[in-house]
Amino acid sequence: MAELLISNEEFLKYGVHIGTKYKTKDMAEYIYMTKPNGLSVMNIPKINEKILLAANMLSEFSPSEILFVSRRENGWKSVTTASKILGAKYIIGRYSPGLLTNASLENYTEAKIIFAVDPWPDANIIKDAQKIGIPVIAMCDTNNLTKNVDLVIPGNNKGKKSIGLVLYLLTKLYLQKKGVVKSDSDFKHDVEEFAGE
Question: What is the DSSP letter of 19?
Answer without folding.
Answer: -
